[in-house]
Amino acid sequence: MSTCKTRFIPASETLALAPGKPACLTSGVQTRFIVNPRSGAALQAIGAVRAFAAAHGASVVLTERPAHASDLAAQALADGCALIVAVGGDGTMNEVARVLTGTPAILGLLPCGSGDGLGRHLGLHGSIARALGILRTGRPRLIDTGLADGHPFFTVAGLGFEAEISARFNRLTQRGFFRYLTTSAATLRSYSPETYRITHEGGVCTTPAFTLAVANVDQYGNSARIAPAAQVDDGRLDLTIVPPVRFLNGLPLLTRLFAGSLRAGRDVTCLIGPRFTVERPAPGLIHTDGETHLAGTTVEFAVRPASLHVLCPK
Questions:
Q1: Residue 81: in which H helix or E strand, if any?
Q2: pLDDT tens figures, 159-169
Q3: d(CA 310, CA 84)
Q4: What gap in Å lies between CA 13 and CA 17, rounded to an integer?
């Protein structure tokens, strides 16, 4: 196991809520809901969201295409909204959150996706009624933002097997946890692990790996805890190196993933620090919060501490 020391960021380098800043929807703050109707759960929740918004003087807009949530979030900022609520999965959350990063605006979450890693980590996952209630009673919390070759992420970014799964899963017209499992099984049959060279504060390591997960939170979603010790506000990223999967170790690794016990040991390596450089034999895919991008042979990961306000339970 390798462990990196981290520099704690002084308060002068972080964002802070302005004195007297409204904390939640009932404080009279201008609010906009951005709903992704492609998410089945979000589509079912539109009626409740519209009724709630009308009762609190908020507005509701629907996305119409990929990346549209980012455009709508930018417009919400331009319109003076201080609380912007993403209604959808981790992809919708990412599109909204990356626009709000570095601003005093607050992100609200109504998690309605197949994973909802950030919502689960922050204690926001549950019924729509509960999530709407948190918009009335919650308090802002500053969290970190991860960067993968400049692409912001808020849950997990990665290379290897998980990037391949993300690419295949995103092409499906029907999603959900069961479809994710079947896609994973199909991908496993044809996937070949690569060897990576990883530079971190503690040194350099070269290792074959099934997947590399760089985590800002503890899980992908659905309680699949790829980095059980990760904290969203510690100014660090947690890199989990999963070894090549074979018949004998595959099921135990999967069991530990969902049991929250996938910690460093004889087979799994965990590195912790503010930045990592990962080198691989050939260009390929990376993913950020489940969205895939083409990247080169060298991928840079870094953290931007205390850069996003999220409305969380008290």
A1: none
A2: 998 888 877 77
A3: 10
A4: 13
Alpha helices in the chain (DSSP H): 40-55, 68-78, 90-100, 117-121, 128-137, 161-170, 177-188, 247-259
Where residue 8 falls among pLDDT bands split at 50, 70, 90?
Answer: very low
pTM, two decimal places = 0.85
The domain ranges of the chain are 17-141, 151-307
Helix then strand then coil, in percent of the chain rounded to 5, is: 30, 30, 40
Calpha distance 92→97 (Å, rounded): 8
Gyration radius of the chain's alpha carbons: 19
Per-residue pLDDT, averaged over 19-38, amounts to 74
**Beta bridge partners of residue 200, listed in sequence order:** 203
Q: Which of 205, 231, 204, 203 is nearest to 217 (CA)?
A: 231
> Percentage of the chain with pLDDT > 70?
82
Q: Judge whether residue 314 has pLDDT over 70.
A: yes
pLDDT tens readout for residues 118-150: 999 999 888 889 999 999 999 999 999 999 999
Q: Which CATH superfamily is domain 17-141 in?
A: Probable inorganic polyphosphate/atp-NAD kinase; domain 1 (3.40.50.10330)
Q: Is 11 helix (H, G, I), strand (E, B) or coil?
A: helix
Count helices and strands in the chain by DSSP H and E runs: 8, 16
Q: Which CATH class name applies to 151-307?
A: mainly beta
